[in-house]
Amino acid sequence: MLPNVLQRAADHVPVLADEVRELLAVRPGETVVDATFGAGGHSSLLASDLEGDGKLIAIDRDPSARTYFDRFKAGSGVQARFLRGEFSLVLSQLAANDVQADAILLDLGVSSMQLDRPERGFSYAADAPLDMRMDTSAELSARELVNEADERELALIFKRFGEERYARQIAGAIVRRRAERRFERTGDLADVIKQAIPTPARFGDGHPAKRVFQALRIAVNDELGALEAALPAAVRMLRPGGRIAVISFHSLEDRIVKQFIREQARGCTCPPEFPICNCGNEPVLRDLTRKPLRPGARELEANPRAASAKLRGAIKVGD
Ligand SMILES: C[S@@+](CC[C@H](N)C(=O)[O-])C[C@H]1O[C@@H](n2cnc3c(N)ncnc32)[C@H](O)[C@@H]1O
């Protein structure tokens, strides 16, 4: 195990940090892209592997990440720049401008700073304005979605992105309530969700509003759409021999990553019933993690938020 030199980071403990470092195997002189900079926990570790010689490009759609980047840059000892934006767009632009990378990390989802700041409206545990935008300048917030989307759309969001059993009942309760008074606050929404669930189910798996809040967050930030578009853009940016690592936090994300790596590692897109390949496509990636890497007991004890994390990685072939 490599030493985890970042345990002092106060705001966000980087998940699977040693495993990410081993998988990306960053060497001096390389270019690293941290597409989900957050508080820069992983970036600090990867920058230390550059040993003062190399570049780090940091991306985040959340403007508050800039403060962490400034602090990181001052102490990192490497060339670093921050690009604020949605990672699929930024990666596509970089690839279109022939910027190449040796290592790319996507650590998906929200950061502890976003979750723990009640005013960001991500948490059902604190009463705050309904927001949930990672990019605070984006048009769509949870408030718009909860007050404007029709009942079927809400139920679909809760079912698909939250795997919520009572999706239809909750969507119905929301629509009835908002006909009298619009939703403005997380606490108010959490109460309505709780009331819409049959009493015995309220005491089941965690807080009754957990899955609906997750679903709204995924929808507001189009998290799955961004991931689907980002993976091919990231691979376009990679040099031959370049590595990509992705940490996901729920099965919907992990499925997208797993399928993408499988397809790119297979190359051939001919239907299985074809006796010989006639598409001629060559593998683009080699899978580095046939099974995803998970946090060990020690990490889970220190950081329970890592519980659902899964890390997958691949290397671009041709070196
Ligand atoms: C789990 S945190 C990353 C934490 C970081 N690895 C660290 O150690 O501090 C995810 C970060 O990625 C950002 N993010 C998530 N999806 C994004 C997207 N599609 N485009 C750009 N940034 C995104 C979030 O704003 C958040 O700051």
Keyword list:
7 strands; binds S-adenosylmethionine; 13 helices; globular; about 325 residues; seven-stranded mixed β-sheet
How is the secondary structure organized here?
Blueprint: H1 17-24, E1 31-34, H2 41-50, E2 55-60, H3 65-76, E3 79-84, H4 87-96, E4 101-107, H5 112-116, H6 142-148, H7 151-162, H8 167-180, H9 186-196, H10 210-220, H11 223-237, E5 238-248, H12 251-266, E6 285-287, H13 297-302, E7 310-316
Parallel strand pairs: 1-2, 1-4, 2-3, 4-5
Antiparallel strand pairs: 5-7, 6-7
The chain binds S-adenosylmethionine (SAM).
- Structural class from helices and strands? alpha/beta
Specify the overall morphology: globular
- Helix percentage range: 40-55%
Report how far apart the termini are: 26 Å
Tell me the strand order in the biggest sheet.
3-2-1-4-5-7-6
Ions and ligands: S-adenosylmethionine
Name the helix and strand elements from N-terminus to C-terminus, one letter apiece: HEHEHEHEHHHHHHHEHEHE
| Count of strand segments | 7
- Low-confidence segments, ≥5 residues, pLDDT <50? 1-10
Oligomer: single chain
Q: How much strand?
A: 5-15%
Total of helices: 13
* CA radius of gyration: 21 Å
- How would you characterize the largest beta sheet? 7 strands, mixed
Mean of pLDDT: 92
